[in-house]
């Protein structure tokens, strides 16, 4: 038992000496829990942006608009008045749902004729879609029930007459972009992007640390070759492999998983190239700074959990705290996943994807700049004991 406690004591000292290991063991779980708790702190999707296209412009149609405005679940966007404006607002994300009240709505209601009100909502994000559909039905049910109660109290209608009044409004619903509510279309490609990110980043991050551990990195540092050529030569195979995997997984998703791929193939390829370049350059930069492969593995593992959760790919970014949104927009995976959805699922053209391309292009430039400016010199060896894989040393008491 004493031997076990001695070994445990040594390991505990090792954990407290290594900062990264200490963070992973004691602080990272709490940090992740706090991060995700803050991400989902709103819990309920309120203030869903909705447009009311009132083609009747009657007292009754304005009452419906007021019912949506008074609901805590919706925020009416007053700038949208026509159906083409509704289509544009749904494309650019200005609104997530729309209600189209037909002409002669009040007249048909007065005659107890069947009246169809069109509601549309964005199904590309299932969380938006499910909640919006439920909220719209709640508003209309309350509206119809209120009218029925008014008739019952004021005119003394029978139950059958009240039922007839309640059946005079038929609610037609259209689901745009993901009409079958396919969970595959909603989630699968986001997971694929994280796979490409983590595997690609880990692979290229080991390229220089492997040379350090084999003590062959010196030959690159002392060779009369500029740093950018070293980066290009060592990163090129991983860049090509990453793009090959991107295309392969797109084909696999379309062929076997039956994922929807609409929009421009050129835009999908451009997004993939930029994303791949960022991953490759960032991985090389990490590799030049990390002391060994163990540290690289730890760094990359720490990224795997939060990237997907805070990106806004599942839980809408409008309901995520601002400081987390700020962090998420510093990550290429956020722009890549949301941009990919805009093209593949919503089939939007270049003008809607430009912000994503600009952000990814800037990140690619900064990542490459950081990768090609590594110092061509050796860092001094650590003091205080024999180095393990050029990394942290044993404690001095165990020399």
TrEMBL record:
PROSITE patterns, sorted: ABC_TM2 (PS51012)
Entry keyword annotation includes Cytoplasm: no
Transmembrane segments: 20-45, 186-209, 230-253, 265-287, 299-317, 323-340, 352-374
GO MF: ABC-type transporter activity
UniProt cross-references to Gene3D superfamilies, sorted A to Z: abc type-2 transporter like domain
InterPro entries from the UniProt entry: ABC-2_transporter_component, ABC2_TM, ABC2_TM_bact-type
Cellular location(s): Cell membrane
Domain ABC transmembrane type-2 positions: 153-378
Membrane topology annotation: Multi-pass membrane protein
Keyword vocabulary terms for this entry: Cell membrane, Membrane, Transmembrane, Transmembrane helix, Transport
Highest rank taxon of the organism: Bacteria
GO-annotated cellular components: plasma membrane
Family: Belongs to the ABC-2 integral membrane protein family.
Protein name: Inner membrane transport permease YbhR
Gene (UniProt): ybhR_1
């Amino acid at each position: 038992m004493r031997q076990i406690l001695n070994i445990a004591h040594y390991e505990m000292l090792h954990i407290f000496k290594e900062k990264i290991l200490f963070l992973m063991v004691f602080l990272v779980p709490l940090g992740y829990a706090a991060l995700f708790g803050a991400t989902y702190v709103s819990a309920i999707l309120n203030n869903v942006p909705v447009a009311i296209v009132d083609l009747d412009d009657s007292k009754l149609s304005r009452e419906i608009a007021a019912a949506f405005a008074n609901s805590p679940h919706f925020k009416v966007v007053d700038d949208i008045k026509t159906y083409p404006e509704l289509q544009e607002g749904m494309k650019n994300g200005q609104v997530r749902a729309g209600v189209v009240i037909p002409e002669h709505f009040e007249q048909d209601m007065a005659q107890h004729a069947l009246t169809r009100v069109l509601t549309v909502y964005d199904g590309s994000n299932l969380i938006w879609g499910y909640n919006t559909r439920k909220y719209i039905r709640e508003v209309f049910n309350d509206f119809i029930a209120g009218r029925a109660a008014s008739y019952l109290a004021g005119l003394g209608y029978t139950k059958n007459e009240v039922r007839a009044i309640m059946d005079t409004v038929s609610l037609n619903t259209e689901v745009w972009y993901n009409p079958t509510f396919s969970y595959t279309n909603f989630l699968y490609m986001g997971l694929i992007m994280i796979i490409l990110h983590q595997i690609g980043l880990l692979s290229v991050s080991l390229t220089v640390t492997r040379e350090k551990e084999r003590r062959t990195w010196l030959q690159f540092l002392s060779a009369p070759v500029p740093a950018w050529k070293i980066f290009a030569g060592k990163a090129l195979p991983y860049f090509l492999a990453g793009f090959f995997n991107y295309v392969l997984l797109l084909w696999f998703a379309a062929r076997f998983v039956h994922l929807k791929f609409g929009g421009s193939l050129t835009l999908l390829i451009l997004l993939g190239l930029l994303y791949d370049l960022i991953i490759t350059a960032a991985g090389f930069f990490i590799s030049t700074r990390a002391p060994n492969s163990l540290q690289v593995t730890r760094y990359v593992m720490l990224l795997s959990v939060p990237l997907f959760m805070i990106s806004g790919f599942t839980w809408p970014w409008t309901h995520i705290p601002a400081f987390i949104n700020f962090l998420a927009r510093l990550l290429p995976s956020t722009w890549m996943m949301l941009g990919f959805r805009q093209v593949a699922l919503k089939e939007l053209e270049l003008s809607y994807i430009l912000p994503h391309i600009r952000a990814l292009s800037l990140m690619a430039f900064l990542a490459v700049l950081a990768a090609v400016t590594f110092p061509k010199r050796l860092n001094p060896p650590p003091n205080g004991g024999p180095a393990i894989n050029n990394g942290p040393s044993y404690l001095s008491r165990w020399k």
